[in-house]
Amino acid sequence: MAKYLSKITVEEKIEIIEKFLNNKINYRQAAEEADVDKTTIRDWVALYENEGPLAFLPRKKYQRYTKKTKQAAVLDYLAGKGSLREIAQKYNLRSQTQLREWLKVYNTHGDFEVKEKLTMSGTRNTIQEERLKIVQDCLSQDKNYRQIATKYQVSYTQVYNWVKKYEKMGSAGLEDRRGQQKGSLPGRTPDEELRQELSREKQKSKELEMQVELLKKVKEHERRDRLD
C-alpha cells in the first residue's frame, strides 16, 4: 500500500519521472517504485512538465497566486473545461489540492478576498430608520455586505457592525447611544426573532445546496480521472 508521504529523495523522484517520460516505465510501475499512488505520479509529471526538475526543490516561500488566477481556474473547472489535474496543470499549480482549496473558498464566499475592504473611504451619518432598512436589505441578500454598502453609499464596516448589533439586540441595537450612559438595551421583538431565524435557515439551505452541487462535480471529474 502506498504511503501517505513519499520518503524518496528529490533525485530519486526526478529519476522516476524521467523514466516515465522516456516510456521506460508506466504509471503503475512508477507508483510502485516511488511507493505512492498513481494520482501523485500524475501530479509530479505535471509539475515536471511545467517547471522542470526545479519543481521538486524546496521553496523558501509559498507561491502566491492572484485573485484573477484563482477565479479563472475555479470557473474553468466548474464549466467542465478539464479535470482537477488538467486545470491544475493549465494554471501551473503545484498540486490538485491547491485547486480543491480554492473550490471550497469559492463555494463558501464567492470570491477570494482575504480581507474585505471598505466600499467608501469614509463613513456618513445615518438615522435609526435608515440603518434598520439597510440591515433588513442586507439580510434579505444573504449578508452581501459589499453590495449593500455600495447601494446605500456607506462603508462595509458600518453595514457589518449594524447587522451584528441587530442580530444581538434587534432594532434597539441600531439606536445611536453616543453620549448616553451605558446600560442594558431591550432585546428583539418576537417578529424580529422570527425574521432573523428565517434568514439564518435560508442561508444554511443555500450553502448546503452549493456544497452538494460542488461535491457532485468534483466526484464526477475524479471518476473520469480514474478512467484515464
Automatic annotation (TrEMBL):
InterPro entries linked: Homeodomain-like_sf (IPR009057), InsJ-like_HTH (IPR055247), IS150/IS1296_orfA-like (IPR052057), Trp_repressor/repl_initiator (IPR010921), WH-like_DNA-bd_sf (IPR036388)
GO molecular function: sequence-specific DNA binding
Family: Belongs to the IS150/IS1296 orfA family.
Domain of life (superkingdom): Bacteria
Matches recorded under Pfam families: HTH_28
Protein name: Insertion element IS150 protein InsJ-like helix-turn-helix domain-containing protein
Amino acid composition bias (Basic and acidic residues), ranges on this chain: 189-207
Region feature (Disordered): 173-207
UniProt source species: Tetragenococcus halophilus subsp. halophilus
Sequence ranges assigned to domain Insertion element IS150 protein InsJ-like helix-turn-helix in this UniProt record: 12-61, 70-110, 130-180
